[in-house]
Amino acid sequence: IEHEGVRLLSLGFVNTHSGVQGSGENNGAAIMRGPLVVKVVAQLLKGTDWGELDVLILDLPPGTGDVQLAVCQELALSGAVAVSTPSKLATVDTKKGIEMFTSLGVPTLAVVENMSYFVCEGGGKHYPFGKGTMQDMTANSSKPTPSVQFPISMAANDATESGEPLCLARPATGADDELNTFQELGKIVSRELLRVHYGDTEPEHQVQYSSKDSSQTDGEELFDVATLQLNLEKSTNQFTLRLFSSS
After folding, report:
1. DSSP letters spanning 190-229
2. Same domain, yes or no: 24 and 136
3. Residue 55 lies in a domain
4. Are 78 and 58 a contacting pair, CB within 8 Å?
5. 47 in a structural domain
6. The domain that contains 137 carries what CATH number?
7. Are residues 188 and 95 in the same domain?
8. Contact, 188 vs 109, CB < 8 A?
9. In a domain, 38, yes or no
10. So which domain of life are we looking at (predicted)?
11. pLDDT tens series, the chain, 247 aa
12. 181: domain range?
């Protein structure tokens, strides 16, 4: 299934007992033993015509079970993003997952604390499940793992129920924190992936283009690459320029 340029595959699409529309008439749980889980994971990953991808994101179940081990055996993962809630029990399980991926040579790029807080009508932040557990998850002997906190959000829930992702719906009000956090998480993951592949060095400069260097066409932002290159050439320092194209 492809939606808004994102290709998606789920076990529910091919499991006749999942109850997902189009997969079959039956409805029930997918009950599988360890060896079968490994085979199913391998088939979904390597038996699917993904086409040309920029990145493959795997949404894994919680824990440190057969699915996680099978994925690490079948693929050379670039990194993992750990998702937890503020409760101490969830934090303990998340730390175990981080330790498992670390032992398998998969770095943790970021930690996400979901349902971290809510904002009341007066504008104040409240933490119903407590604070301080994030530090336990992100602490590392060499350097802290980047982290973000997502609020308890009606806007995110409404987007899930409607089937339109929040980043596409972009409601005019009530979702600024959520959208900004998604943007921050995307920047963190992109930066950490670059560090994994090209070395753990801090960038000396960031290059951004202004609105005068770009134009708006059919909802897509276009900019003059030559202008960016001319601006970059004014500096004598080394730089890396990454260009992306849909063609």
Report:
1. HHHHHHHHH-S---S------GGGEEEETTEEEE-HHHHH
2. no
3. no
4. no
5. no
6. 3.40.50.300
7. yes
8. yes
9. no
10. Eukaryota
11. 888 888 888 887 877 665 555 555 566 666 777 788 888 888 888 888 988 888 899 999 888 888 899 999 889 999 999 999 998 888 889 999 999 999 999 999 999 999 999 988 887 889 998 887 777 777 765 678 899 999 998 888 898 888 888 888 888 777 889 999 999 999 999 989 988 887 766 655 555 555 555 555 555 556 555 555 545 444 555 455 555 555 4
12. 76-198
- CA angle in degrees (0–180, nearest 5) for 216-220-226: 70
Tokens representing residue 127 in the block: 């933490």
- Phi, psi angles (nearest 5°) of residue 113: -100, 110
DSSP 134-179: HHHHH--SSSPPPEEEPPP-HHHHHHHHHT--HHHH--SSS-HHHH
Token pair for 102: 């670390």
Q: Which two tokens stand for residue 143?
A: 């350097």
- Within 8 A by CB and 6+ apart from 164, the residues are none
Q: What is the pTM of this model?
A: 0.73
